[in-house]
Q: What sequence folds into this?
């Protein structure tokens, strides 16, 4: 005879046992609290949208929302030369991302697969550089790269690549380590060869790690402000990256808040969407797996 | 050919070592060198001048107050960030409808450039029309728009408090996610054992969860200490460290010095850098990075 006296396995999976009708109420309280907190995190950036849609004639009015709405800040954005800055930011972010991937992938693969002298030392160096930020050595960066005499855009590509290498090495190392070497060996036995095993087996399996490293580097280089400000000082606005160019809307006596926030939205919305894609994996790369 | 075999890893690691060398290590050498040189406004090196830059730096009338302010800035921002994040992580660890959407809202200040966030708050605190002041005026906290009371960023104490709030706001997402990730690593049966032993939820949090979260909290704290110490965009956009140097931290002070005396700014950088080194050494000795790569 089959009876139904077995405890429901579902109960074991929850941290605390369900207590009748209290559970839906508790869930609701949690949910509403979380919605309020989410709104607090979202509101400052919604204010950016409200300001971008506010007519210039209403900039001096102390009202929370404008009486009229306008798109003119967006349509006239391009005449303020923002297109050039977007191009410069894209060049810097894409350039830094390509360099980071080309440099980090072999290093991460080699340290994941082989045990050799100096391996620990190398990983320690990488981890240490993650804690060093450009702000702490700005004078050195500025003097070194001015001596090189490179165009500011190229200098920024190299600097952004260098300071974001650690994250990529770390997250790719974790992904390559999780792929069994036997898988590659089996593929090689099946006649794929070493290169074939790498490109057909290992790289596709490590794809989530590669995408995370790619997006993270892109966002970091796109958002970087201090070194960009230092190295692109005195350049024409169209050759300054977006973060620096946005500050040109701040004049000595007045601020063009409408254009500033319209440009700010253009700079911010794409990276928020990109970041949402890698949200779950980014912490392990930043903390060297120390919290997992 | 064992000697050649031993050099093979160098082919794989070489580009990474070269990049770190050029971008991270060499600037440190240049910086230390510059700190012993007399450097003119255009970056022209007039020659070595021993420890003059350091002597001048330590005798700057603002030096001590800037350092003390930096300590307060770092301690308050990191401590409040970690405390709030512990609560947020506990909340976002629970299951409720729409959790993923709320998590996406949480990451916005992390993904957006800190400079943009600082500019939003600078605007919102405008004494005449800023939206925070307008709301505070509506509920009666700010008596009159455009008054000294509404000029939060003009008064060093209130300016520092608001900038700390912004720094906490942008540090919360990473810290919460780091602690969340720690929470997810705690197996469910640990709680079961605790509840069989009769522990209440608050006692099981203090006795079970918090000790198990120790590594996550430690790493998040140290990474935040370095980030907050090096933080530049918030103070630079909101007050430029002024009036005078009354809202400057050592990073802002160094960047301001760079405009007038590069050599002395380099000395300040070396000083800041040594502080960061100490934090990094603590970080390396506390993280379990060796376990991941071992």
A:
């Amino acid at each position: 005879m089959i009876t139904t006296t077995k405890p429901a396995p579902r109960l074991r999976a929850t941290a605390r046992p369900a207590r009748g009708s209290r559970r839906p109420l508790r869930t609701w309280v949690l949910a509403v609290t979380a919605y309020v907190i989410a709104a607090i995190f979202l509101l400052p950036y919604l204010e950016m949208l409200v300001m971008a849609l506010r007519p210039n004639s209403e900039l001096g009015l102390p009202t929370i929302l404008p009486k009229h709405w306008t798109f003119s800040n967006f349509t006239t954005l391009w005449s303020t030369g923002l297109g050039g800055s977007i191009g410069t930011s894209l060049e810097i972010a894409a350039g830094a991302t390509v360099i980071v991937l080309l440099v980090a992938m072999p290093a991460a693969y080699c340290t994941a697969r082989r045990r050799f002298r100096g391996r620990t030392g190398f990983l320690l160096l990488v981890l240490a550089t993650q804690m060093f930020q450009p702000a702490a050595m700005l004078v050195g960066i500025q003097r070194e790269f001015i001596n090189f005499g490179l165009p500011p855009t190229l200098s920024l590509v190299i600097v952004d690549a260098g300071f974001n290498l650690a994250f990529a090495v770390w997250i790719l190392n974790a992904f390559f380590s999780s792929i069994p070497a036997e898988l590659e060996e089996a593929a090689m036995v099946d006649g794929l060869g070493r290169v074939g095993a790498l490109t057909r087996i290992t790289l596709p399996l490590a794809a989530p790690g590669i995408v995370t490293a790619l997006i993270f580097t892109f966002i970091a280089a796109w958002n970087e402000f201090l070194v960009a400000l230092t190295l692109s000082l005195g350049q024409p606005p169209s050759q300054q990256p977006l973060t620096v160019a946005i500050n040109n809307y701040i004049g000595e006596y007045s601020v063009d808040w409408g254009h500033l926030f319209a440009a700010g939205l253009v700079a911010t919305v794409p990276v928020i969407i990109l970041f949402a894609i890698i949200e779950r994996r980014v912490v392990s790369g930043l903390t060297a797996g120390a919290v997992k | 050919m064992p000697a050649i075999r031993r050099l093979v890893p160098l082919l794989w690691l070489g580009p990474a070592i070269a990049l770190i060398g050029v971008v991270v290590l060499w600037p440190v050498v240049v910086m230390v060198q510059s700190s012993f040189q007399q450097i003119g406004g255009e970056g022209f090196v007039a020659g070595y001048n021993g420890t003059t830059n350091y002597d001048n730096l330590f005798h700057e009338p603002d030096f001590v107050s800037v350092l003390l302010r930096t300590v307060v800035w770092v301690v308050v921002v990191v401590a409040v960030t970690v405390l709030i994040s512990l609560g947020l992580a506990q909340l976002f660890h629970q299951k409720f409808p729409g959790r993923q959407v709320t998590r996406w809202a949480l990451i916005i200040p992390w993904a957006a450039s800190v400079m943009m966030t600082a500019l939003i708050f600078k605007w919102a605190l405008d004494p005449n029309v800023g939206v925070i002041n307008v709301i505070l005026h509506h509920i009666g906290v700010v008596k009159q728009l455009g008054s000294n009371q509404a000029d939060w960023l003009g008064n060093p104490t209130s300016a520092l408090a608001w900038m700390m709030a912004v720094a906490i706001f942008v540090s919360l997402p990473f810290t919460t996610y780091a602690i969340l990730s720690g929470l997810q690593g705690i197996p469910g049966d640990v709680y079961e054992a605790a509840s069989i032993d009769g522990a209440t939820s608050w006692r099981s949090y203090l006795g079970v969860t918090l000790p198990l979260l120790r590594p996550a909290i430690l790493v998040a704290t140290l990474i935040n200490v370095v980030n907050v110490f090096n933080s530049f965009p918030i103070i630079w956009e909101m007050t430029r460290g002024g009036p005078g140097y009354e809202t400057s931290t050592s990073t802002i002070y160094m960047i301001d010095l760079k405009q007038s005396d590069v050599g002395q700014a380099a000395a300040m950088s070396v000083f800041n850098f040594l502080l960061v080194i100490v934090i990094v050494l603590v970080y390396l000795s506390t993280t379990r990075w060796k376990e991941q790569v071992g």
User: Anything to note?
Assistant: Confidence is low (pLDDT under 50) at residues 1-15 of chain A. The two ends of chain A are 45 Å apart (CA to CA). The CA atoms of residues 203 and 210 of chain A lie 8 Å apart. Chain A touches chain B through 107 residues (CB under 8 Å).
